[in-house]
Amino acid sequence: MTPGDGEAWPVDVTIPYTRPAAPRQCGGAVLYLDFDGVLHPEDVWRRRGAGPYVASPPGHAVFEHAALLASCLVPYPDLRIVLSTSWVRVFRSVSKAARCLPASLRDRVVGATFHTRMASAAFEALPRGAQVWGDVCRRRPTAWLALDDDDAGWPTVCLDHLVHADPVQGISAPPVLAALQARLAAMYPEEGGLP
Fold this sequence. Notes:
Strand order of the largest sheet: 5-4-1-6-7
CATH architecture: 3-Layer(aba) Sandwich
Structural class: alpha/beta
Largest sheet: 5 strands, parallel
Low-confidence stretches: 1-13
Number of helices: 7
Number of strands: 7
Mean pLDDT: 83
Distance between the termini: 11 Å
């Protein structure tokens, strides 16, 4: 449920800031994107000098499903990506985290749910769904969808916008991929464009 003009937003999440901030881009269609458990298995570690790697299960690589996501988004060229991944905090930069993505996804990135003007400890204490909802309340997209393997603590108002990925197979799990494709299509009804 994304309220239209004049409608009230049912829940607001306040995240403490060290100074006020507004997203650079508001409105439009947005995909909130987690990396771990979505674009590769969730058990990812970072080794100094070698970068991130999938610790388990064996036989997987970081961002192994990024091309699959990129192909799903081709029909929706105006869809923007907001990073909801902890990689933004780890790399201390939206642009550094986005550089891990292929260009077709990286070029869509307009921000993250976390930025350095936020109180980091307070932000990290919130469930992922509350972090995303806080950004939705600030960014006010006309339509939005969240891809995440963490479905704990999501506000009820957000559940219809969540595509819950498999922690190991990510978006490559057939039911997850089907749900993603259906939700994207629903965001873009053929008659009249975005809702």
